[in-house]
Amino acid sequence: MTTAFFPYSAALILTALLGLVFAHQRGKAYLMYFQQEEYDAKRFRHWLSAHHGRDRATSVFALAAGGLCFGLSYGFAWLEALGWAALIFGLLDGIRRSRRSLSQAKKPLVMTDRAKRILQLHVLFSALLAGLIYAGVRFGAPASNLAASLIAIVVLAQASPYLLMLANAALQPFENRVKARFLEEARQKLRRLDPYIIGITGSYGKTSTKSILAHILSSAAPTLATPGSVNTEMGITRVVREQLEPEHRYFIVEMGAYGPGSIARLCRLAPPKLGVITAIGWAHYERFKQIETVFDAKFELADAVAQSGGTTIVNQDAIPGHLLQKRLSDGTPFIRVGSDKDCTLRLVSADQTPDGVRLEIVGDDMGEVVLHAPLYGLHQAHNIMAATAAAHSLGMPIDAIRAALSSAPQSRHRLEVVRSGDITIIDDAYNSNPSGFASGLELLDILKAKDGRRILITPGMVELGEKHEEEHHKLGELAARHVDIALVVTPERIPSFVTAYEAQKPSHAQLLRFDRQEDAQNWIKAHAQNGDVILYENNLPDLYEKPPGF
């Protein structure tokens, strides 16, 4: 055995072990982003390109080691030690960067059984790929251990996100079998227990409307609603399998549309007898491309309800009139709520007070009614009306509905008002839309103390497609009238908002720029004063903030 054999063999073994750790940690970090994209390979590839998600640092260190390899051909044997050191340091740095990305995540990776399977197969694929590359270069070229190792590491670092997608694709047949079994169990349970199913969908407002309706119906009979923003096939399936009980008379199901046919699939899983469509707007425009496609996708709920002989409640004020009119003329049964005189339930007035929303409505069979709910944002008036119409159509007296509304709970992170000492927080961090954003800005004036400041923290909105600049420009102008200090996260995403705000704000107002939500929150911790009211308008997942720094 030569004197050089042992240390360089040890370096090779250490590199191999660190390569496995790197594959696991980098795969886990990529899996977090992949999971946030709902395991959609197309959207994940777009994120990789748009946000510079591919590896750079580890590959640069490996290539530096490669540069040192050239010195070996000139007899500088000591350069091999530096090459191994650069390669090992690059792997350690890559592991550190991956762990940092995971530890700083706003939406941490959830290690579900599916996520575990994907990660395990990713590590296996990584080991096989690196081993094949190493063997091919080492014995096929032939090349030194260092040269073969560094090429294997560069390929591994660059291929890691694609190996993750490959692992997901390879597991898809198995996942489909698991999914089919769970779906059938949920269908059988729904047929056996036969609750009255109410489906709710819309571009926005569906979660708040669901929460309000669940509160109203719970005052009359046992009611189960899908929790939070659960609105997918497997999410609903899990709720049915784990939470639905024989005593539940009503089951309220939030239904999300991720493309044409999504709602129809959910309706086959949980056939609704009553439907609620809260709005048709530009949210998720990038998935649908045309407002007509959004309309058709959401109105799959109305089609399913009609097949069961039921009625769908629609918020006429938030649905394009020319599209709705076509459906009204085809005989589909609807209950319309809104401000027009021809609505079944008409909004006469709505006012926001420090204690909640007060609205006056007129119904065909209930006369003039005044309702109050301890909720915030004038857009809640339409959510309250839709929930009221649904409960009334199920036979609840308006007095019982009014009593239930007086104690309606706020929805988490949806214009949720929280008072912390002498500071008021308006938490609208979940999935901002133009209507809710505008309501939050107007709410700042109502809740501000006499000498307090109106502060906005926002990264803007997403998935507005061609309306992105226009909607942000409108909201920038509105913010200039209602905001003293605007903390804008990733301002390069919303230049029209920044431009409009700075052009129209009063001289005392200021705009501050931040790369991450955490940085803006740290500013608040350091500078918030008694009497301030702070609006958190959206909190985007890690996908939309600065690149991961791999």
From TrEMBL:
Residues 413-535 form the Mur ligase C-terminal domain. It holds the Pfam family Mur_ligase_C. Keywords: ATP-binding, Ligase, Membrane, Nucleotide-binding, Transmembrane, Transmembrane helix. The keyword Nucleotide-binding applies. InterPro entries: Mur-like_cat_sf, Mur_ligase_C, Mur_ligase_C_dom_sf, Mur_ligase_cen, MurCDEF_CellWall_CoF430Synth. The chain crosses the membrane at residues 6-23, 57-75, 119-141, 147-171. GO terms for molecular function: acid-amino acid ligase activity; ATP binding. Gene3D superfamilies: Mur ligase, C-terminal domain, Mur-like, catalytic domain. Residues 200-391 form the Mur ligase central domain. It comes from the Bacteria. This is Mur ligase. It comes from Iodidimonas gelatinilytica. The lineage of its organism: Bacteria, Pseudomonadati, Pseudomonadota, Alphaproteobacteria, Iodidimonadales.
